[in-house]
Design brief:
seven-stranded antiparallel sheet; metalloprotease; alpha+beta; transmembrane helix; single chain; PDZ_sf; hydrolase; Pdz3 Domain; Pept_M50_Zn
Length: 398
């Protein structure tokens, strides 16, 4: 239950920040925003402030479909240019029934009402590009803020890495940073993030000592491994086997000396910005590896995690502590930014691609019917991919 609550809170933060980027830049550019929604329709409830009465109006689920079911074909009729389009007189803020994302419904985002000054379609390409990219920029900015806060309160770091000047190190431990799927430790129940306390009843001071003791184990004898998980000590009796990847007996874990690193605020802010760039490059490389492997015939879904997998990892990060959750949320925010900027229809990057095509064709747009169909088809494919990956996540859990 705690995992679900934390996951929804993290997801809400990422989505709201992303959509807030589109929202505020659109409003700043003079574009009307019809709805700011968390989750996908149907709408559970919404609220808006009536500009005449200055009172808030609450909307129930029965009125949830009208705003999103606008007939775009009607916009092509001459009499539609002056017909009322807005169901509500102000921006509706809504909570919707499918909590896997969010949206900002902007007037004219699909080419309609091009003659209206407050329409997205009326704006110049550079203004539309700025509105479309604002969500991605906000996710990158959020990651920088979270990592900066992390450095102020203490952020997880591997001690073998070079630490910034003025860093204070505390809570040192020998941490399990990788568990071989299907290996002896994984089967026994050892998790990433567990910290090694004892090996065969003897305390270990650092990664080297723990590694040496585990390396001397043979398949003929069991290893008793005591780890700290949260506030408890858990013991595992593990039978080592020959690990194919290293060619010798082991229990299938990777260890590292880790600690929380804290910086004064004036060093934490630039360190957070630098860390954001570093993480972004690493995520970009990981995406590149996935794409290369896909062309080589490797199953892409095995390398991805859907909502269930991300929820599990969020819960694991939360159990490790606030600093770990901060760092994990920052990494998720960067992942969301990178995915959204990909030139795939239905994503921000795909819409930017159509703006770029329009600019290259000197103002001649792609037929809106074709563009809408392409976005709808891509969204359906992405939803199908999410379902497949989610099924894989569930199969890994059971």
């Amino acid at each position: 239950m705690i995992t679900l609550i934390v996951f929804i809170a993290v997801l809400a933060l990422l989505v709201l920040v992303h959509e807030a980027g589109h929202f505020f830049v659109a409003r700043r550019a003079g574009v009307r925003v019809d709805e700011f929604g968390f989750g996908f329709p149907p709408r559970l409830f919404g609220i808006y402030r009536d500009p005449e009465t200055k009172k808030f109006v609450v909307l129930g689920p029965r009125r949830s479909q009208k705003l999103l079911s606008h007939d775009h074909r009607a916009d092509e009729k001459p009499e539609a240019k002056h017909a009322p389009y807005h169901e509500f007189p102000a921006t509706v803020y809504s909570i919707n029934s499918i909590p896997l994302g969010g949206f900002v419904k902007i007037k004219g985002e699909e080419g309609q009402h091009k003659d209206d000054r407050d329409s997205f379609a009326h704006k110049k390409p550079w203004v539309r590009s700025l509105i479309l990219s604002a969500g991605v920029l906000m996710n990158v900015a959020l990651a920088a803020v979270l990592l900066s806060i992390g450095f102020m309160v203490g952020i997880p770091a591997i001690l073998g890495d070079e630490l910034p000047n003025g860093a204070r190190v505390f809570n040192q431990k020998v941490e399990i940073i990788e568990v071989l799927p299907g290996g002896p430790a994984s089967v026994a129940g050892v998790l990433i993030g567990d910290s090694v306390v004892n090996v065969n009843g003897e305390a270990v001071a650092d990664q080297k000592e723990a590694f040496d003791r585990l390396s001397t184990a043979s398949p003929a004898g069991d290893v008793q491994l005591d780890v700290r998980r949260g506030d408890t000590i858990q013991s595992f009796v593990i039978t080592p086997t020959v690990i194919t990847e290293i060619g010798r007996p082991g229990i299938g874990v990777a260890l590292a000396d880790t600690a929380l690193v804290r910086l004064p605020w004036y060093r934490a802010i630039p360190a957070g910005i630098i860390a954001t760039g570093t993480f972004f490059v690493e995520i970009l490389r990981a995406f590149g590896t996935i794409i290369v492997n896909a062309f080589r015939g490797a199953p892409v879904t095995e390398q991805l995690s859907g909502p269930v997998g991300i929820a599990v990892m969020t819960g694991q990060a939360a159990r490790l502590g606030f600093s770990y959750l901060l760092q994990f949320t920052a990494i998720l925010s960067l992942n969301l930014a990178l995915v959204n900027i990909l030139p795939i229809p239905a994503l921000d990057g795909g819409r930017l691609l159509f703006v770029a095509i329009e600019k290259a064709r000197r103002g001649k747009t792609v037929p809106k019917g074709f563009e809408r169909a392409l976005h709808a088809a891509a969204f359906a494919l992405l939803l199908f991919l999410v379902i497949i990956v989610t099924a894989k996540d569930i199969s890994r859990l059971f």
